[in-house]
Structure formats: structure tokens, C-alpha cells
Design brief:
alpha+beta; PH-domain like; four-stranded antiparallel β-sheet; 7 strands
Length: 189
């Protein structure tokens, strides 16, 4: 069996199909420049996260509205809680698309580099030979949007990486590529 080739330059037809067109980075003069191509997640991830946030805030909002109607109609604090929840939802709706565009990964010769975040950036390089597990998971909302999460586990707890918002096909191709490359390094998987 021949070792799998790791794409180093140019867009990959499966990994980059239906993804964002440009990776958002912090506006800073000092950037870590790496070789290869940044691959991004699906824009469907933004819609999924917005719906999840709305559902998360729906229950407390329903409780507050029930209290307004039935129990304490003239309490100012309930209006403050409802306003804060609405403000939180609006901030989440504004920030989520930018956060999603900042998530990216690169396949290099010896490792996978994952980055996320605008204000609080995280850049992690996971050596192929150190990977112990590559896992694809998807919850009910992920399946509804045709998305999956790819998780790479290493012996070091801080270098484990989860790439959210991949299309199911891209997650499977990436998993198979990572497994093939890790097998050639003989220290992982």
C-alpha cells in the first residue's frame, strides 16, 4: 500500500467544496505564516450555531414571559433579564459568522495545523505520527445540516483538536487521509 499524498497547495475539491472563501485573521502585523493552503468549514455551521443559540435562550425567555404574564407583571428585574437575554442573542448572532470564518486547518508534510479565534486565537499543530484517534461525530442538528465534527486525539491533552462544521464527505476524506498518513509515520493510530 502506497502512502497517501498530503495536498500541499491549491484548493482540494472535496475539502473546500461549499466552504467560506477567505479565512479571517486578527488585524495584527505579527502573524504566523505557514506553508500550504488553509481549508475552512461549511457556512452551514453558522446557521446551525445561530439556531442552537436561539433554542438555548428560548427556554429562559419562555420562563421570563410566563412570570411576566402570570406572577409578577410589574417587576422591573424581569424586563432587565429579558433584555439581557435578547442582547446576548444579538451579540451571538453578530459574532458567530466571524468566528466561523476564523476556523481553518492546514495539511502540511508532518502535521495538521488548526486555528480558530479572532480575539483569543488558538493555533495548534498536531503531528500525524502522534495521533492516537481520529473520530467523526455528529449530533441531531449536525445531521440535519449535513455536517460533522472531526476530532483528533493525541497523548497530550492540550493538543487534541476538534474541527467543527465540516461537511460529512469532507470529514470522511480528511479522516481517511489522516489515518493513511499517520500509518506511514508508524508512531500513531
Amino acid at each position: 500500500m502506497q502512502p497517501a499524498a498530503v495536498p500541499s497547495n491549491g484548493p482540494h475539491p472535496v475539502l473546500d467544496s461549499g466552504t467560506f472563501t477567505g479565512l479571517k485573521t486578527a488585524r495584527s502585523e505579527k502573524r504566523l505564516e505557514l506553508d500550504g493552503t488553509w481549508h475552512q468549514i461549511s457556512p452551514k455551521y453558522v446557521r446551525e450555531q445561530l439556531i442552537a443559540s436561539a433554542l438555548l435562550l428560548l427556554l429562559p425567555a419562555a420562563v421570563v414571559v410566563a412570570m411576566l404574564v402570570d406572577f409578577i407583571p410589574n417587576n422591573v428585574w424581569i424586563w432587565i433579564v429579558l433584555g439581557a437575554g435578547t442582547a446576548l442573542l444579538l451579540v451571538t448572532m453578530i459574532i458567530t459568522p466571524r468566528q466561523a470564518r476564523a476556523i481553518g486547518y492546514r495539511l502540511r508534510d508532518d502535521d495538521l495545523v488548526f486555528r480558530k479565534g479572532i480575539l483569543w486565537q488558538r493555533i495548534v499543530a498536531v503531528p500525524y505520527g502522534r495521533m492516537q484517534l481520529v473520530d467523526i461525530s455528529h449530533g441531531p442538528m449536525d445531521r440535519g445540516f449535513g455536517l460533522a465534527q472531526l476530532k483528533m486525539v493525541t497523548a497530550a491533552a492540550t493538543t487534541g483538536v476538534t474541527i467543527p462544521g465540516l461537511t460529512q464527505e469532507a470529514a470522511e476524506v480528511l479522516r481517511d487521509t489522516l489515518i493513511d498518513v499517520a500509518e506511514t509515520r508508524r508512531t500513531g493510530l
